[in-house]
Amino acid sequence: MRGRFAWGIAAALPLVFLALFFVWPVVALLATGFTADGAFDASGVPAVFSDPRTWQVIGHTLTQAGLATVLSLALGLPAAFVLYRLTFAGRTVLRGLLTVPFVLPTVVVGVAFTALFGTGGPLAWTGLERSLPVIVAALAFFNVTVVMRTVGGFWSQLDSRTEQAARMLGASPTRVFCTITLPALGPAIASAAALVFLFCATSFGIVLVLGGRRFANIETEIYQLTVQFLDLRSAAVLSLAQLAIVILTLIVSSQLRRTRERAVAMRSEQHEGVRPGMRHLPVLAVFAATALLLHGLPILTLLARSFQASGGGFSVQNYVNLVVPPPESPIIGSVLQAAGRSIGIALIATAIAVVLGTLVALVLSRRPRSAGLRRSIGAFDALVMLPLGVSAVTVGFGLLLTMHQPLGVGFDLRTSVVLIPIAQALVALPLVVRTILPVLRGIDPRQRDAAAMLGASPWRVLTTIDLAMLGRSAGLALGFALAASLGEFGATAFLVRPGAQTLPVVVAELIGHQAMGSYGTALAAAVVLAALTAGIMMVAERWRTNSGGGEW
C-alpha cells in the first residue's frame, strides 16, 4: 500500500502542475472561441473557417512543415550514417556540435538567417529574404539534429551481419541499403519524421522573424490575432485547428516510437563502426555541406556582422552597447542585466522540469499487468507531450487570462516573474522525459525482481537501480532543459514585464527597432545568447559521454 501511495504521489505532482499551468490556461483560452457576452456562442467557428485567410495560413503551416521535414530527412540520414556508423577521431565532438543547433533559440537562428540573406548580407544578391526557401532552410537548421540522433541511435544498434552476408552474395552497396538497411530503419525514420513535422508545424520565432505576415503559419497568426488585432475568438478557434494537428502528430509519433523501442530492445551491443573509405565520399560530402553551409554559414555570418560598425569596418561597439546601452536604446537597462536575469529564471525552470520530468519518466517506465493501468500510462504520456506541440503563444496568453489570483491566491501572479519559469518549465518538461525515459525503459525488469527477492525494499530498488541508471542521461536532460528554458521566446514574450525582459525578448525588441545601433546590438546580443546555449549543451554532452549514457 505504501508503494502504491508513493507511485500515486509521483504521478499526481506532475498532473497537478500540468492541470494548473497548462490544461486550465489552454482550455480557458479555447473557451473564448465559443462564448460571447458570457453565453455559449459557436458562430465564431464557421466565421473563421469560411475566411480564405484561415486556409491560407493552414496551407502555409502544412507546406512549411512538410518541406522542412523532407529536407531534414535528406540531410539528417547522411549525418546519422557518418556520426553513428563510421569510426574516426573527433566523432564524439562532432556529435555534440551537431546537437547545438537544435537547442539554439529560434530568435537567434532567425536573426542569423536575416544577417545572411538580408540587406548587407553575403547572400542578399539572391533576393531570398523573407521567402519560403529561407524559412524551410531555417527550420531544417534545427531538425537535422532530430533526424541524426533519432535515426543514428537506432542505426548504431542494427546487426550488421545481414548486410555483410548480402555483400558476400554479390549485392551492391546501393542494393544492400535499399533492400536491407532502409527497411530496418523504417520505424526510426518515421518516428523522426513525425517529430520534425510537429516541431516545424508549431514553429514561432523562425516564421515570425523570417516570414512576417506573408508566410504566417498558425502559430504566428495566433500571435498577431491576439496582440495586434485583439481578436481572441478567432485566435481561439485557430488554436483548435493547431491542436488537432498536434494531437494527430503526437499519436502517430507515439505509435512509431513504441515500434522503434521494441525494435531496439531486440538488438544487442552497439555497432562498432567502420573506417571511412573512398566509397563513403558522397555521404561525407553531403554531411560536410550540411555542417558548413546550413549550420556554419548563418552562425559565422551572424558573428562577423556583430563586429561590423554601422558605417562599415571592424568595431566592438556593438558589444560595448551590451554593457553600456546608448541613450537611444529601446530597452530598459542593459543587455548584460537581461542575460543575468535569463540565466536565473532558466535555472529555476530547469529545476522544476528535471524534478517533474524524472517523476514522469519513472511512472511511464513501469510495466503494469493491468490493461487499464497501461492505457492510463499511455494517456499520461500523451498529456506530458502536449506542451511540446501546443502553441507557446496559446500557453502564454492563457496564463495571462487565468493567473489573476488563481485558486484564491492573495496576489496577482501576472504582475511578477513567477509565471516565466513556469512557462519555460512546461516547454522543457517533454524534452527531459524523452531524454531519460528510454534509459529507464531499457532496464531489464528481472534486475528489479532479483533485488526484491534478495530482500531489497522498493525504495532501495528504486535508488540503486532506476535512479543509478538515470545518472547516465542526467547530464543531457539537464542541458536540454536549461538551454530550452534560456531560449524560450513565445510564451515569455507575453509574460515579461517592462524592465524585466529576458535575453531572447531583448534581441527581438532590438532587431525590430529603428534606433541607430539597435540592429548591431541585437546581433551582438544574439551571439551572446547562442554562446550561452551552445556552451551549456557542449558541457552536457561531455557529461553524458563521460558517464556512458544512452542516446537521445
TrEMBL record:
It is found in: Cell inner membrane; Cell membrane. Residues 58-256, 339-540 form the ABC transmembrane type-1 domain. GO terms for biological process: transmembrane transport. One of its GO terms (cellular component) is plasma membrane. InterPro entries: MetI-like (IPR000515), MetI-like_sf (IPR035906). Pfam families: BPD_transp_1. Belongs to the binding-protein-dependent transport system permease family. This is Iron ABC transporter permease. It comes from Leucobacter tardus.
